[in-house]
Amino acid sequence: MKNIQVVLHPQRPPGVEALLRQLPQIELHTPSDEAGVERALDAGAQVLATYVWRETFMRPSLRWIAGMGAGFEQYPLQQLASHDVVLTTAAGVHAACVAEHAFALLLA
To answer: Which partner for 80 in 62, 85, 90, 93 could form a disulfide, CB atoms 3.0-4.6 Å apart?
Structure first.
């Protein structure tokens, strides 16, 4: 089975790189700047894990954007759909703790 090439944007939370390096089926690219992200995508990387979207990241090899934030407003949804690029985000990941915090504030 061929490894999946993943580009990890330079702006990333701690621990993401270490987690991805543990997955044997992933060939991880960790560029130091956005030009490096573009070069990795030009070299055939299929997955981009990022907080940030730039139009220059759209490449023929791109198949999946793993958005590390909860929002999706910055992404060109129609363009991604027309190029068969899947977008996933962390939407809802903080819902429970935000609700608990809000309730605690009400009690305070």
So the answer is: 85
